[in-house]
Every structure is written in structure tokens, then in C-alpha cells.
Design brief:
single chain, alpha+beta, Heat Shock Protein 90
Length: about 270
């Protein structure tokens, strides 16, 4: 069965015009609900990025899509909102588009691995942005970022015979500190597998974790790996490690000939 040919609507040119919110009439039978929390999120997004998604209306000003955006604009007291006027649609087509505009977006999924990386990078201390602008709640972000930590630390399980971990005490890291530590471990493990002690069959890594006062001290030491050239310039890896910890702690890398060593100090809760 062949798909139907595209209608004349498919390639029409769209024009954005600005209208006062009072010139637009919301559909009283709009099936999509908008909580006060979501309207507040839309407001926050408009304040941060501008009104990036025009509302859709028919030539008489009847709203087809964008009810939440219009409510947020009214609450913000905006004088004008961007509007795309769609003419030539029948009433059943308007109803179908109103539903499709919301439902089709809900049918999309997430590439969870990429989502974890995106949120982890946006959470780095040197990035000055409110994560709430992503639309994810703090609880949702914490769940995703905790999965980042589990993913990075799971590498130790796969390398359990070659990564030896000892822990003294019960250091309780802050949420931001543990996220930063996960990124540091990712960088150290990746480099050890590519170039360091985990790149050959004889090398191993020793990780010692201990609580000292109000800090957690983590010492990463590589043994029996290839000879290491001293770092002449601060490379991307060193910079990433420093940025990942930022105000939550510090890391010192030592490119000794017999293997890389890294001493990390993190604040405790």
C-alpha cells in the first residue's frame, strides 16, 4: 500500500507575524492540560531563550497549537507573541493537528546514553546555566546523573582483577562532588585502557580511598604499564579533570615514568 501523496499544505511557505495575546482565542476543547508548574517552566524558557516556538492559529485567530505558550505569555504580560496562521484547514483537520501537535512529540524517546552525557556536561561547575531550563526536574536530573556515576564505576567491576580498590572509613561525598568524581574516573580509566597500565596484560591500578577530616582523599596509582612521558603541556584530560572537580575539590596528576598517579581531594557532606 502506497502512502498518500502530500497535500498542498506540505510545501507551503509559512510566515511568522506578531499579534497581541488578546487577539487569539484558545480552544475550549483543547485536550492537552498545562499545570502551573509547566506554565512556569515555559515562562522560564521564554525569559532565557526568547519566544522560540510560534503558536499556530487559523485566520480568525482561533488557536490550534500553543495553548501553554499563550498562557505563559499572558502571565508574563507580553504585548506580542509570534504566530503562524494556517489557512485552508478544515475543522476536522484543525482538531487532528491540535491533537497531533502534542501527541507526536510524546511518542519520541530518549537516547539515554547521550542524555546522560549532555546533562553531565551541563552540570559541570564552569557551565553557567540553570539545568531547570532543560525541562527536567531536579529529581529527574539527579537520577540521570547518578546513572552516569554507576556507568563509570561499573568499569571497575569489568576490570575487578586489575583495579584494586581499598576504602578506609565511610566518606560521604556531596552530590556535585560524586558527579565530578565519576567524570574524573571516566577520564582516568579511558586513558589507562588506551595508553596506561590497563593497555597491557601485566599492568594494574590501585585506588585507595580514605576519609581525612572533612575531606575524602582518593589516590589513583598505575603500576607495570608502559613508560610514561612527563606531561609538557596541560592537555584536554588534565583540564577536564580540574574542571570536573572545580570548587568541590582538587586533583594533582603526576606523570611518573612507572605510571600515572592522581591524588584527588573532595569535600564531604
Amino acid at each position: 500500500m502506497h502512502p498518500p501523496p502530500p497535500s498542498f499544505h506540505a510545501d507551503r511557505t509559512l510566515e511568522v507575524v506578531y499579534k497581541t495575546p488578546g487577539d487569539l482565542d484558545p480552544d475550549p476543547r483543547n485536550a492537552r492540560t498545562h499545570s502551573r508548574k509547566q506554565i512556569a517552566q515555559i515562562e522560564q524558557s521564554i525569559r532565557a531563550f526568547g519566544f522560540t516556538n510560534p503558536v499556530l492559529a487559523d485566520p480568525d485567530g482561533n488557536l490550534i497549537a500553543g495553548h501553554g505558550r499563550l498562557r505563559a505569555a499572558k502571565k508574563m504580560g507580553l504585548d506580542k507573541v509570534p504566530v503562524i496562521t494556517l489557512d485552508g484547514l478544515t475543522e476536522p483537520q484543525k482538531k487532528a493537528l491540535r491533537l497531533a501537535d502534542n501527541k507526536i512529540a510524546l511518542n519520541a524517546g530518549w537516547d539515554t546514553e547521550i542524555l546522560k552525557l549532555e546533562l553531565a556536561e551541563l552540570s559541570l561547575p564552569e557551565i553557567d546555566i540553570d539545568l531547570g531550563l532543560t525541562g527536567f526536574s531536579p529529581g529527574e536530573i539527579d537520577v540521570v546523573l547518578s546513572e552516569v556515576e554507576e556507568t563509570e564505576l561499573s568499569a571497575f567491576k569489568e576490570l575487578k582483577d586489575r583495579v584494586r580498590i581499598s576504602v578506609a572509613g565511610e566518606p560521604d561525598l556531596t552530590s556535585s562532588g560524586s558527579q565530578g568524581l565519576a567524570l574524573v574516573f571516566h577520564e582516568l580509566i579511558t586513558n589507562a585502557i588506551k595508553y596506561g597500565a590497563l593497555s597491557n596484560v601485566t599492568g594494574h591500578v590501585e585506588v585507595r580511598i580514605r576519609e581525612v577530616g572533612n575531606s575524602a582523599i582518593i589516590v589513583w596509582t598505575e603500576h607495570n604499564g608502559p613508560a610514561v612521558d612527563p606531561e609538557r603541556n596541560k592537555g584536554f584530560g588534565s583540564t577536564l579533570i580540574a574542571r570536573a572537580l572545580d570548587s568541590h575539590g582538587s586533583a594533582n596528576l603526576d606523570f611518573a615514568r612507572d605510571g600515572v598517579a592522581c591524588r584527588i581531594e573532595l569535600d564531604l557532606i
